[in-house]
Amino acid sequence: MEHVEGIDVENVTRWFEGHVDGVEPPLEFHLIAGGRSNLTFRVDDSTGAAWVLRRPPLGSILPTAHDMTREFKVISALGPTPVPVPAAIGLCEDETVNEKPFYVMSYVEGHILRDSGTAERVLGEKERRVAGESLVDVLADLHAVDIDAVGLGDFGRRDGYIERQLKRWHTQFEKSKSREIPAVDEVHAELLSTVPEQGPATIVHGDYRLDNTLLGEDGHVRAVLDWEICTLGDPLADVGLLMVYWADPGDDLSALLSAPTTLEGFPRRAEIAERYAARSGRDLSRLDYYIAFGYWKLACILEGVYARYKAGHAGGDRSGFEAFGDHVVLLADTARNALASSS
Could you say which of 3.90.1200.10, 3.40.50.300, 3.10.105.10, 3.40.640.10 is the CATH number of the domain covering 116-342? Predict the structure, then answer.
């Protein structure tokens, strides 16, 4: 039986036979490239049917990170809503099966636009505009979901979201950092002293961006992925982070190392914000604060990824990680600049 890093093929195949309707072993497992944290595998059976399996990364894990149960609960709850997600198939919390918990969802055909080359090849100018608008509309739909009606009322505390996030990511940064980065601590203090008043809580994706979705040929979002840090809280945090990731032509810094949204056809950052405000009815007058928070949070997250890379626990493709170290410092400095313009 083939060896696949991160998968106990024999045990997982047996689990599939007991939990996945119609599966016909033998199964083949292929790591889907691009997972900077959780490992994502495509699973194919002998009939050509396909599923997706998600599990935590190899190596040591911080206590609150990479919670498979939470991800599975979210996509299960969102299944009947207008928010497009893969179908939830099954969750395995028994660590004797595959060393860590994992879950299985349906395989959704679509394109992930991780870089300009892919975006240019997959979508024409018209479809790129559709992609930007669809991304915003889906986010507004997510923030309109009635959390109690879909069974997520107890998914997390509803109030004090930004304060809790500041504490969580700063603590995580302190635990995982590979060096001192004074800007991260300074921006943390400034963010903490100027938190906007939070409106009614919604589902917050936590890492909502173009390359965490699967797009159809027509540009429409077919599935939102990567729910690992989803919780309840302030929806404007998602909007701020989307602004961070949404690069305009001529930007000095791109949060992503390659920024597809600078291509012709994609709406500009200001259009994205305007469309969200119109769709959601929310006041975006403090958006610069949430953008600064987004840059800062990203710096904390990437320092964790960088530290894991340095320790050899990244798994899969390790190309491009070295640049992350410098990027963390740039992001913290950019957060400081965004805060200056928000005050």
Answer: 3.90.1200.10
